Amino acid sequence: MTTVKIKGMTCQHCVASTKEALEKIPGIQDVHVDLDNNQATYSGDVDDNVVRQAITKIGFEVVD
């Protein structure tokens, strides 16, 4: 599993939007978004920049 820290999520709608955006990326599976820890986890072999762009596109920030 890969974990990505996300800044800007504040509610369950944010969680749903993030989960939906990540699930649209070819090759990603088992997406889980955790509002309490401000992170998303997923499995699959996907370029980190593709994930970062998907999250940024919906208005959130990936924290390194």
Can you describe this structure in just a few lines?
The chain is α+β, with helices and mostly antiparallel strands. It has two helices and four strands.
What labels would you give this structure?
64 residues, alpha+beta, Alpha-Beta Plaits, four-stranded antiparallel sheet, 4 strands
Description:
- It is a single chain.
- This protein is α+β, with helices and mostly antiparallel strands and 64 residues long.
- The protein has one domain: Alpha-Beta Plaits, CATH 3.30.70.100.
- The chain has two helices and four strands.
- The protein has helices at 12-23, 48-57; strands at residues 2-7, 29-34, 39-43, 61-63.
- A four-stranded antiparallel β-sheet has the order 2-3-1-4.
- A hairpin with a 4-residue loop joins strand 2 and strand 3 (39-43).
- The radius of gyration is 10 Å and the shape is globular.
- The model has no long low-confidence stretch (mean pLDDT 96).
Using the 3D structure, state the CATH architecture: 2-Layer Sandwich
Order of H and E elements: EHEEHE
Number of helices: 2
End-to-end C-alpha gap = 17 Å
Mean pLDDT: 96
Number of strands: 4
Summarize the biggest pleated sheet: 4 strands, antiparallel
Structural class: alpha+beta
Report the β-strand fraction as a percent range: 25-35%
Counted up, domains total: 1
- The CATH class is identified as Alpha Beta
